[in-house]
Amino acid sequence: MEEEEAVDVLVAGLDDGQIHLSIYNCFQIGIFDLGTVSAQLKRCRSKLHASHPYSSTHALLVTSALDERPSIIFVPVDLRFISASGGYLSLLAAKSTQLQNLLRYISQVYKLVEAAWKSCQDLPTKFMRNISEVLRERYQCDFVQAAYHLVVTGNCLPPVKEWLVDELSERVSC
Amino acid sequence: MTVGYETIRRLVHESLLPALERCVIIVSRLRGLSKYGECETALGLSTKHLNGVLDAITCLSLLAHSVLNTAGTELRQFAAFSTWLRNEIDIQATDPATSTADPAEKEVDIEYGKVLDYIQGAMINSELADFILRSSSRDRSSLPGAHNASALSEARTDLKQIYSACPSETQPPCLGDMIIHLESQCALVFQGIAEAQKRNVLFGAPFELTTSDNVDACDMRMLSEASVPEPVIL
Question: How much is the ipTM here?
Answer without folding.
Answer: 0.76
